Amino acid sequence: MILDVRITFSKSQISNLKSQIVNFMSHLEKLKNIKAFVFDVDGVFTDGSVYLLPEGNMCRVMNVLDGFAVVKALKKHYKICVITGGDDPMVRHRIHYLGITDYYAKVHHKLEKFEEFKAKYNLQNEEILTMGDDIPDIKMMKISGISACPPNSVAEVKEISDYISPIYGGKGAVRDVIEQVMKAQGTWIDDDTQSI
């Protein structure tokens, strides 16, 4: 028995499919250009929650999946910068523990620190992937080669993002974008992967 199956697409469906393929290929090419990452803290490295402890201190939670990806990227000589409006000593400790040396806290105009980081390493906008979640991140996201955000971001950030991660901030969103870049460039899996 021979089965003859024919699938028919409308012109708009074909056009939409072509557009999706072009967008995917463009995204893949952009990933291959990335040499550096810029991240916010609250809502990106964390879920945005602040836990108030009995003695009056605040506490944030970060994910080890993100930490693994950060360490791996730094070992492969990617540059990573964290720019945040806050200044939590425990966050600072965690960021430095991961090996990130470009950490800017209490920043009110993030674009200035973004430009400082870019100049320090002689980077071009298209070589930077920036992930943010709120309005203060928009200016630096708009000029980055790739702008990304977690799904728990504000609407204004989602509107300007090239990529909305399906993974929430504080749950592995940072790892998601680092892993995508490194996989696109063939630097994710190697002999060192098991020892990190």
TrEMBL record:
SUPFAM superfamilies: HAD-like. Keywords: Hydrolase, Magnesium, Metal-binding. The keyword RNA-binding does not apply. InterPro entries: CMP-NeuNAc_synthase, HAD-like_sf, HAD_sf, KdsC_fam. It is an enzyme of class 3 (hydrolase). Pfam families: Hydrolase_3. The keyword Amino-acid biosynthesis does not apply. Its EC number is 3.1.3.45. Its cofactor is Mg(2+). One of its GO terms (molecular function) is 3-deoxy-manno-octulosonate-8-phosphatase activity. Homotetramer. NCBIfam families: KdsC-phosphatas. Belongs to the KdsC family. PANTHER family: HAD SUPERFAMILY MEMBERS CMAS AND KDSC, N-ACYLNEURAMINATE CYTIDYLYLTRANSFERASE. This is 3-deoxy-D-manno-octulosonate 8-phosphate phosphatase KdsC. It comes from bioreactor metagenome. The lineage of its organism: unclassified sequences, metagenomes, ecological metagenomes. The gene is kdsC_1.
